[in-house]
Amino acid sequence: AVMALDNGLARTPPMGWLHWERFLCGTDCAGHPSRCVSEQLFVEMADRMAAEGWRDAGYEFLCIDDCWMAPTRDGQGRLRADPKRFPGGIRRLADYVHSKGLKLGIYSDVGNKTCAGFPGSYGHYELDAQTFASWGVDLLKFDGCNSGSLEQLAEGYRRMSLALNKTGRSIVYACEWPFYLRPVQQPNYTEIKQYCNHWRNFYDVYDSWNSIKSILEWTALHQDSIVKIAGPGGWNDPDMALVIGNFGLSWDQSVTQMAMWAIMAAPLFMSNDLRHISPEAKCLLQNKEVIAINQDPLGRQGYQILKDKTFELWERPLSGRAYAVAVLNQQQIGGPQNFTFSLTFLGNGLACNPACSVRQVLPASRDWGIYNWISSLSVEVNPTGTVLLKV
Fold first, then answer.
1. I need a surface site. Which of 238, 292, 293, 366 has the fewest CB within 10 A?
2. Do 17 and 121 fall within a single domain?
3. Of 295, 328, 356, which residue is a domain's last?
4. Which residue range or ranges hold the Alpha galactosidase A C-terminal domain (predicted)?
5. Is 319 found in the same domain as 221?
6. CA-CA distance, 247 to 267, in Å (whole number)?
7. Last residue of some domain: 295, 318, 346?
């Protein structure tokens, strides 16, 4: 087995809420008080997460992304929150978040500046780790902008991992290491998993079908090098943000994102406005059966097993000899299409041997009954939609 980061964390993919994508680098609190990155925003999200079933569904991390900092470090060289937008500092916010039964995530960068130009952690790894621990932070998303050479990048990711472990506080470590390596060299995932709890492979997710589609294409294309490394303690992050409940995805595309992120054993971090979310989006994001697939204790990542014209068939081995199966229709024209496949395709022919029960999880939950291993299944799927089954 591949050695996972020795902090005992992320036994299943972490779940939570992240400000990046929906709130970007909003620093104008005077002009747009409800849309800026501020203590107020996180307090309001924490309230919603606790009161409206999000925490109970498994979304436990409330994560601050870039742009939380003051433009300079303090006199002792420590990072500090922007005093106007975070008047109580991060410690007070962490205490509040913890009082709601949630955990707080924060953001920094391996280089000398963050992607948005705020102070980075280069030259301050140990100090920043101690600072975050003293504030009561539970997760660090560590970005890779402005890091100089690839050797410096790798060294920075390793050092921050060790520095976090040395604090004695349990802090989930979310890296962007392979994303910044990839243009130049093939990442060594065995090494990355020794230092990180999850690691990002691909571009920022956008609130659009094109973005979701490109992430799925990239994942299928590279599955031979990334699927085998995922497991308890370390996960591939196809850019974590679920953009369900925003503006860019149709209903079927939202179902596809939810289903496929569960198949990929991806961290589930929503980036949306929980103060204004439709009942449908909430219902999808809190779907217990889909979350159970994502959080399956076996911790195997799913993969594409068949591509046939516009259809893709994916499977994910689950505990109890079950499988999650996704049928994705990539066609963007016309109406629903039928896809028929033999159950012998699944689990190298073993998933349904000699018989199995099939249950549809998405777009709606219903039992399909018992099949034998040479049966075929015919699945009707809307354009850009997905049918998620449990076999």
1. 366
2. yes
3. 295
4. 299-385
5. no
6. 22
7. 295
- Distance between CA 207 and CA 141 in Å, rounded? 20
Q: Quick one: pLDDT at residue 239?
A: 87
CA 312 to chain centre: 22
Q: Are 68 and 86 in contact (CB under 8 A)?
A: yes
Long-range contacts of 316-321 (CB under 8 A, 24+ apart): 316/262, 316/263, 316/264, 316/265, 317/347, 318/293, 318/390, 321/351
Report, in angstroms and rounded to the nearest whole number, the Rg of the chain calculated over CA atoms.
21
Token readout for 388 is: 């998620």
* Three-class DSSP category at 385: coil
- Domain of residue 36, residue span: 4-295
**Burial of 316 from C-beta contacts in 10 A (0-12 / 13-18 / 19+):** buried
Q: What is the mean pLDDT of residues 213-237?
A: 97
Residue by residue, DSSP assigns 149-175 as: SHHHHHHHHHHHHHHHHHT-S--EEEE
Q: How far apart are CA 299 and CA 99, in angstroms?
A: 30
> Based on the domain organization, do 94 and 206 belong to the same domain?
yes
**Each residue of 34-80: pLDDT tens digit?**
999 999 999 999 999 999 999 999 999 999 999 999 999 999 999 99
Task: Look up the CATH number of the domain holding residue 364.
Answer: 2.60.40.1180
The answer to whether residue 204 is catalytic is yes
Q: Which tokens belong to 30?
A: 């005077």
Given the residues 66, 128, 143, 237, select the one marked as catalytic: 143
Number of structural domains in the chain: 2
The pTM for the full model equals 0.98
Is 109 considered catalytic here? no
Same domain for 268 and 314, yes or no, is no
